[in-house]
Amino acid sequence: MPKLGYAYPRCALAAACWPGAEPKRPKNLMRYRLHAPEGTYITLLGQFYTEDQTPLVQADVDTIRLHVFEQPASAPASEVYSTSLTTSAVVFDTMQTDARWTGDGTGYNFRYTVDAPQLLGKGGATMIYEVEIVLLSDGGPIKQAWEVHAAPFLSPA
Predict the structure, then answer these.
(1) Which CATH class is domain 4-151?
(2) N or C: which terminus of the chain carries fewer CB neighbours within 10 A?
């Protein structure tokens, strides 16, 4: 298997991305910040590449892990959710260029929708979560993280 390289993250749908948050250079772990109302489904998009800069395909990936960490302001981060993802459900063998992708003309080859219950505000406070995707193969890992600010609705139900 080829050695895994890097990712360019994006966010879509209900998420509002912070200006200037889009990375312009490859790194092994980048963080992308976004805001979303609590309990909102958020679709994460990414461009994943092998070390030789070819787009990653399903056959390049052995395992994908999803980790969600809660990041309280005054305490260490704690993992609140973890699961394995099915490669064929989240990695595409061709770059996708539908309306969800607004980053460039290349498209994305990774898409995952974070379930709303994984991103809830608590006690009327905005919660900060880190959603981390780890793609593994015998060529090494790629880690990609999105920092999600889940803000509560202020009006009563």
Answers:
(1) mainly beta
(2) C
